[in-house]
Amino acid sequence: MSDFHQNGIITDFHNLTRRPVESLEADLVRFSRRRPMSLILPSLYSELEGPALEAIVEELRRVPYLAEVVIGLDRADREQFLRAREFFGRLPQHHRILWNDGPRLRALDEELDAQGLSPQQPGKGRNVWFCAGFVQASGRGAVVALHDCDILTYERGLLARLFYPVAHPHFNYEFCKGYYPRIADGRLNGRVSRLMVTPLLRALKRIHGPLPYLEYLDSYRYPLSGEFSMRAEVLDGIRIPADWGLEVGVLSEVHRNYSTKRLCQVDLADAYDHKHQPVSEEDASAGLNRMSLDIAKALYRKLATQGVTFSAEGFRTLKATYYRLALDLIEAYDHDAVMNGLSLDRHAEERAVELFAANLLEAGSAFLDNPGERPFIPSWNRVRSAIPDLPERLHDAVEADNCGEV
Question: EC (predicted)?
Fold first, then answer.
């Protein structure tokens, strides 16, 4: 059995990594008879040419309980899509690729846009949203998991642990978030979570009080992880951001729709490494620079729906409070790294905090200047209300792309 503890907000399944993967998979095969499982893989075409996705596909070939694998493919022309069909063709499970840049899906996107329902910008959120619509239309999965395609240390036990709490027929969890240590190659990673999100949440609590939403977010060990699982019906009613605020947006939506007793997090791996984003100090549209802006705006929007009032003066106070708390945390991270024989560039950490602090103000200005911004992609419930047959036509378009001429 896994050790777990209740942290006061959500159930935390810790040390599940100690159980052999074969034992977990044997259970999941049984669970799949009552709760079939689908996996969503949001991918850029460029990831097909990297080392991570090749290894991920080889591991997935050995997974015995999946009913369906759905790949969202971005930035691919016709020849690249055909190459992707061949690349994923080795999967023994039923699988489909959403060619997001193909003419069939583009036509559906234009129809959505005419109704004001289309995602307003490309990115992971848009990719995941279309995949969610396809999964619901296909009806093959009662439980859905999602993970990134750049995990260099991927092994199939990660997926089994991610599915387990939601797939178990005697558990009542609706949503599960994965976490893992952010250590690789002797370095302490996870800069945005460590240096921005954690001190920002604590600064917000200091200024606005211990709001239930802030306590909830702060209870996740790694809120920015790209790995989560949920019951298929959860996908129906959530609105997600199209930008880098996807993970925070999903956590916010399940908090809005479900009791925290129905939410959990799970320890996925002893080691985890993936493609690391550059800080991109000179380019606000890329890397951790863009990510920190989007995450801050996502938090401000959500807190506004909770009745929190923001002002220019308040954002300046938030920046100062955040900066002090973040510097204090760097001191603790530095000591932690020394004790564990890890490397940590304290100068680079402080430069990142300076950038994040400036972006808190920048995100605040954007929030105040554009109160009418539509940050979330509409839920699939709303899409079906406006265009009842669109999910079915999305399913047919994907089938045509995967099984016919393109």
Answer: 2.4.1.266
Backbone angles phi and psi of 4, in degrees to 5: -150, 155
Whole-angstrom Cα distance, residue 200 to residue 357? 9
Are 161 and 16 a contacting pair, CB within 8 Å?
yes
Helix (H, G, I), strand (E, B) or coil at 226: coil
Q: What is the pLDDT of residues 103-137, one digit of tens each?
A: 999 999 999 999 999 988 888 899 999 999 999 99
Specify the residue for token string 């105040």: 368
For residues 142 and 35, the answer to whether their CB atoms sit within 8 Å is yes
C-alpha span between 341 and 291 (Å, rounded): 29
* Residue located via tokens 């092994």: 155
| d(C-alpha 297, C-alpha 313), whole Å | 17
- pLDDT tens per residue, range 240-291: 877 667 888 899 999 999 999 999 999 998 877 766 566 666 655 557 788 8
Cα separation, 381 vs 64, in Å, equals 32
Cα separation of 176 and 47, whole Å? 26
User: Quick count: other Cβ atoms within 10 Å of Cβ 382?
Assistant: 14
